[in-house]
Write a structure and sequence with these properties.
One of its GO terms (molecular function) is riboflavin reductase (NADPH) activity. This protein has 213 residues and is an alpha/beta fold. It has six helices and ten strands, in the order E-H-E-E-H-E-H-E-H-H-E-E-E-E-H-E.
Length: 213
């Protein structure tokens, strides 16, 4: 397949690119600085930013699907760290993709977004409501609403806490309550799930909560 990856230089996006290429897909990555990405067979680098509608439209020509693994930039890796900006970056990206019309898109969201908030553990609710996470979650909620109102064939992947571990675990795919999700999920497993959703045309118009145990 011909796939466009937004967020290819991020920790989850790097896994999407590597796994996609390993499966024989042609990957286009829209990146601000192509020098940060190692050139490889099957990988096309386009300089630009996903918040620019023209850049997204140009990069998305003739692709079968768009995979989005972007993040709200923070001053440190701590989830509650101060945001670099409170601008709704993910929402802008969602609007840019939605403007393309009936496009297949798999978007990395987060557990606790939308209707999954009601079933989130109390400490997660506290973090979302009382720490700097509220800015990222406001953006995620807005982005999800944008996709829901669009003509895109969206999948909104609500991942639990993202881990850099490579220890093999069992993937749990369900809702916020059934089966009961684990607390964490490997970034590499998230990448694999997102690629599988594209390859199998699965979870269209769904918001799967994914975790591991």
């Amino acid at each position: 397949m011909n796939l466009l990856v937004l967020g290819a230089t991020g920790r989850t996006g790097q896994h999407i690119v590597a796994q996609g290429l390993a499966k024989g897909h042609a990957i286009t990555a829209l990146v601000r600085d192509p020098s940060k990405v190692t050139p490889r067979d099957g990988l096309t680098l386009i300089k630009g930013t996903p918040t620019d509608a023209a850049d997204v439209a140009g990069a998305a020509q003739n692709v079968d699907a768009i995979l989005v693994a972007l993040n709200n930039p923070r001053t440190s890796d701590a989830p509650w760290a101060k945001p670099v900006s409170t601008e709704k970056i993910l929402t802008q990206v969602a609007e840019n993709i939605s403007a393309l019309g009936k496009q297949r898109v798999v978007f990395l969201s987060a557990a606790g977004v939308g209707d999954s908030f009601a079933s989130a553990p109390w400490f997660m609710k506290f973090m979302i409501n009382r720490t700097n996470l509220k800015y990222a979650y406001a953006d995620h909620n807005s982005a999800e609403k944008t996709f829901r109102a669009s003509q895109t064939d969206w999948t909104l992947v609500r991942a639990m806490g993202l881990s850099n571990s490579e220890k093999e675990k069992t993937l749990i795919v369900g809702t916020a309550t059934s089966p009961k999700p684990g607390m964490m999920v490997r970034r590499s497993a998230v990448a694999g799930f997102m690629l599988s959703a594209v390859e199998n045309a699965s979870h269209i118009k769904e918001t799967p909560v994914i975790s591991e145990k």
